[in-house]
Structure to design on (117 residues):
């Protein structure tokens, strides 16, 4: 399956995150956290924090020393949006990331090509 429409770019302000549902080729629905960095770049990660049941789409988007991350609201682990790796405890496992493309005003995510680090 090719990349699928996940959101309108205008609905995702720079420095924010949101949760979206996208259907994979096998028919399963995946919850993703879409993150838009301050520079306008958009990233897609699994919505559920690797440490517990918390939505990363509800987290804050931070940029420090040129690294954009999303912070889990529950216990504060931050995840590098480019790799899905945690930048600090308590999370120790990465979350899966997905390729994102922008077509005009549409954010497209290829949920059938996950990137696991
Ligand atoms: S649930 Fe996310 S850091 Fe604990």
């Amino acid at each position: 399956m090719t990349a699928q429409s996940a959101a309108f770019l205008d609905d995702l302000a720079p420095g924010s995150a949101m949760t979206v549902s996208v259907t994979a080729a096998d028919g399963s629905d995946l919850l993703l956290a879409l993150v838009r960095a301050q520079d306008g770049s958009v990233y897609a990660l699994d919505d559920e924090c690797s440490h517990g049941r918390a939505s990363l789409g509800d987290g804050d988007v931070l940029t420090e020393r040129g690294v954009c991350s999303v912070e889990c609201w529950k216990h504060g682990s931050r995840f590098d949006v480019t790799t899905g790796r945690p930048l600090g405890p308590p999370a120790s496992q990465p979350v899966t990331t997905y390729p994102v493309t922008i077509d005009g005003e549409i954010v497209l995510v290829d949920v059938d090509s996950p990137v696991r680090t």
Summary: The chain has one domain: 4-109. The beta strands are 4-8, 16-23, 29-36, 42-46, 60-64, 67-71, 78-80, 97-98, 100-103, 106-109. The longest strand covers residues 16-23.
